[in-house]
Task: structure prediction
Amino acid sequence: MNATEMMKPFPGKRMNNFTRNKETLEFINTLHEEMGETPVSVSSDSKLINVTWGGKSEASWFHEDLALEFARWLNPKFSRWCYQRIK
Result:
């Protein structure tokens, strides 16, 4: 899911505040454990976070479960809207 687009309606939020906070790192490690993988650093994580660079197509893409956690962090009402449509 395009996390960059998800974040646009919330100008006070910064993605690096989400990806670097303790709870997010614990959540990412839990997802890796469930996948049977060794946790990796957020900056090198290609299974859960993928960043594309280059002009207008630059974006951060999150695994569905991480995107739902991101939505919860962004805004409770937005989180409920996402859960209703995705899950």
